[in-house]
């Protein structure tokens, strides 16, 4: 199966590696496009795939085209491919904010899946939300699902608007978690631990909490309440968070990410 990946950045490389690891395609069947010559050399050496700076060359006779470009200015690259992709090929986009209608117009193609993975795909623990237009046939739906499952879990959305929601929640979500970890590390240092000790404390706290959530399948609220004794230390912290409206701040941040995802459609 000939697969082209347009964009050899972080996610493009993750997807390439995952497809190869799961034997969805062989190295000889893949081509990765990137304008950076150094990046092309690295990808070719690491994965034994063909590389090119020409997207037009890559999509020729491809059965699957995966678009991993930054959304800003992507229309210039994609309009150059208009009418050049095989009519029965599957196109998958991971670009934030770019709607199916725009992709269909730019590419002159209608067999398209829009998706939003996240950075945890790097270790095979990603979360990808995806939506297919009505022209995607069953076999291509299964193929798209297989590709997404090669780097984590997937969820097929019933409405394209949910892709922008996923961008704000699960797409950007790992960054929110890392941001909170950053702040906890600083708080730990402020309380007397050194940087190395603080990193160990917070990393294991996060790891243990996530493992506990996964193993018990209890709700976050229930698990939080298990830790929180009335008038205890955790209770003091939670009440401070609530008094300062930390939950509202988090919600506003997610809403800002959602708004930005919508704006990208017009850039």
Please state roughly what percent of the residues sit in beta strands, choosing from under 5%, 5-15%, 15-25%, 25-35%, 35-45% or over 45%.
Answer: 5-15%
Give the low-confidence spans.
none
Mean pLDDT: 95
Strand line-up of the largest beta sheet: 3-2-1-4-5-6-7-8
Q: What does the largest sheet look like? A: 8 strands, mixed
Question: Topology as H/E string?
Answer: EHEHEHEHEHEEHEHHHHHH
Q: Please bin the fraction of helical residues.
A: 40-55%
Task: Please characterize this protein's 3D structure.
With 267 residues, the chain is of the alpha/beta class. It folds into 2 domains: 3-159, NAD(P)-binding Rossmann-like Domain (Rossmann fold, 3-Layer(aba) Sandwich), CATH 3.40.50.720; 173-264, ProC C-terminal domain-like (ProC C-terminal domain-like fold). The protein is 54% helix and 13% strand. It contains 12 helices and 8 strands. The protein has helices spanning 10-21, 37-47, 55-59, 74-79, 100-107, 138-149, 161-171, 173-190, 195-216, 220-227, 233-243, 246-264; strands at residues 3-6, 30-33, 50-52, 64-67, 90-93, 112-116, 126-132, 152-156. Strands 3-2-1-4-5-6-7-8 form an 8-stranded mixed β-sheet, with helices on both faces. α5 (100-107) links the parallel β5 (90-93) and β6 (112-116). α7 crosses α12 (246-264) and α8 crosses α9 (195-216). The two termini are 33 Å apart. The model has no long low-confidence stretch (mean pLDDT 95).
């Amino acid at each position: 199966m000939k697969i082209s990946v347009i964009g050899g950045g972080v996610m493009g490389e993750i997807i390439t590696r995952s497809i190869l690891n799961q034997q969805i395609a062989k190295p000889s069947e893949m081509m990765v496009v990137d304008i950076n010559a150094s990046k092309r050399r690295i990808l070719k050496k690491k994965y034994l795939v063909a590389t090119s700076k020409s997207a037009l060359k890559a999509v020729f006779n491809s059965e699957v085209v995966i678009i991993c470009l930054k959304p800003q200015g992507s229309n210039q690259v994609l309009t150059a491919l208009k009418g050049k992709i095989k009519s029965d090929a599957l196109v998958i986009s991971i670009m934030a904010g770019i709607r199916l209608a725009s992709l269909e117009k730019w590419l002159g193609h209608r067999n398209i899946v829009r998706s939003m993975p996240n950075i945890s795909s790097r270790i095979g623990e990603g979360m990808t939300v995806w939506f297919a237009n009505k022209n995607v046939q069953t076999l291509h739906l299964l193929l798209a699902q297989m590709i997404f499952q090669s780097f984590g879990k997937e969820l097929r959305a019933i409405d394209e608007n949910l892709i922008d929601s996923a961008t704000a929640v699960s797409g950007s979500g790992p960054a929110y978690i890392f941001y909170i970890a950053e702040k906890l590390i600083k708080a730990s240092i402020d309380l007397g631990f050194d940087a190395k000790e603080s990193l160990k404390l917070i990393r294991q706290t996060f790891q243990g909490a996530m493992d506990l959530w996964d193993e018990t399948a209890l709700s976050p609220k229930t698990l939080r309440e298990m830790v929180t004794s009335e008038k205890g230390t955790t209770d003091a912290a939670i009440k401070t968070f609530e008094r300062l409206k930390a939950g509202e701040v988090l919600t506003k941040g997610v809403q800002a990410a959602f708004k930005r995802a919508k704006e990208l459609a017009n850039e």
